[in-house]
Amino acid sequence: MTDHNPKENNYLKKSAKIFKVNGTLFIFTIITSVLIRPIIENHYIKDLIIGLPLLIIFLLSPFGLYFSIKSYLKREGSKIIRFKYLFSNSFFFLLLLVFLIALIRDVLNFFQ
Question: CA–CA distance from 65 to each of 17, 58, 85, 102, 104 (Å)?
């Protein structure tokens, strides 16, 4: 039987922090892409405002999934919370994979 000591929930805490950062940046990106596109005419600033949060999400999503899996294997915290963070970090990792597949297809179509 595992002890649910809060001091031992290191992976769960890291997974939760990464999920909160990814979720906040994802919502910020959606809001700015809808509201900022018609207002700002400079494409470089527009791309930076929308692209930088997405880049941070893509960099953090593998770490969030790693910490979620480690937390799930060590049985940290309650079962429902572990599953919630595993599912949500898997969603962000799936977004990363879809983006990479689309990027690879575009590059391959460019060279054909």
Answer: 12, 12, 8, 21, 22
